Amino acid sequence: MTERVGIVIVSHSPEVARGTADMARQMVGSEVRLAWCGGNSDGGLGTDVAAIKAAIEEVFGPAGVALLVDLGGAETNSEMAIELLEESQRDRVVICNAPIVEGAVMASVEAAGGAPLDQVRATAEELSP
Amino acid sequence: MTPDVICRFIDAAAAAIGEHAADLTKLDRAIGDGDHGINMQRGFDAVAEARDTICGLSLPGALQKIGMTLVMKVGGAAGPLYGTLFMSMGKAAPESMVGIAEAATALRAGVSGVAQRGKSKAGEKTMLDVLVPVTEALEAAATEDAGLDMALAQVREAAGRGLESTRDMLAIKGRASFLGERSVGHIDPGARSSQILVNCVCDIAAELSNNPAEPA
Question: What stretches in chain B show pLDDT beneath 50?
């Protein structure tokens, strides 16, 4: 399990994040370490750097972590979260430029197949124009 | 002088953002997701809560702590942007503020950080449309060796002009960019919050020059 890339889903909405994780898990079960987070620290729509960092740490392993995000703030807050990680972890965490739901499902399947991080990201990003 | 500037700024910024939160929300509702006011208020309230800790730090430390607090608490796209502004300023700030030239250097570093974080520049209907002209006004004042009053007047004028210039810009960054042409005719909320913060700093600088602070 620890050799597989971990997946983190970051949405402005906790419901979207949870639902996306459910859909990804439908495809890969417990083969892939997967975490989700959504909403700001007040529980409203938005994203929370501390929650994102915790989610990354939860699924981190030697194969690294791929993040799927929705809109702009989710991406920049995820970047901030990555910058707060241990130095040894930072360059093994990437944010995929992919639609969040489809990207999460594709990335999870790719990760379950044992693909390395750059391949997991590339597969997810094939979905973007 | 350093702790006093920071303490006063924290108090003034929290008050000003709180006062204008509804207005910021209204601007953000017009061309965004309507959360800029409440997000900025959450962020600056958290800074105000940490006031005593922050005031005890050096100028660079205080600016970086303000930045990190904003990153952790704002919760929207503005968090990383304002957080980076303060953190980058902090990294470039001298141990204690000396004058206009040092302020200009620190702000230029802050603005570069924001531009890099947001992958943006002036002219794209963002906070940079206030911050870049303000930085340029400060740099000009430093080069011309302008007095404080003149510098502050030029900074305020640059901020106001920058804010107004966003009205007719087309948004190509952030949520406003989803509106396309419909973003035209509206002031940018991030530019407005930047102008509010710039005016706070100008007010404090004027106050302190009229009533020099006691040594720390």
Answer: 1, 216
A79 at B interface, C-beta within 8 A: yes
Q: What is the predicted ipTM?
A: 0.92
What confidence score (pLDDT) does residue B65 get? 98
Count CB atoms within 10 A of the CB of residue B180: 11
pLDDT at position B1 is 42
Q: How many CA atoms lie within 13 A of B52 on its CB side?
A: 1
Active-site residue among A12, A53, A92, A121?
A: A12
Categorize the per-residue pLDDT at A128 as very low, low, confident or very high, splitting at 50, 70 and 90: confident
The chain-wide mean pLDDT, for chain A, equals 96
| Residue A43 contacts B where some CB pair is shorter than 8 Å | no
Query: Which single residue is written with the structure tokens 């030697």?
Result: A62
Number of A–B residue contacts, CB under 8 Å:
53
- Subunit contact A76:B118, Cβ cutoff 8 A: yes
Note whether B75 contacts A48, CB cutoff 8 Å. yes
d(CA B41, nearest CA chain A) in Å: 12
Residue A6 backbone phi and psi in degrees, to 5? -90, 155
Who among A49, A71, A73 is closest to B72 (CB)?
Answer: A49
Please give the Cα distance from A7 to A64 (Å, whole number): 9
> Catalytic site residue A12?
yes
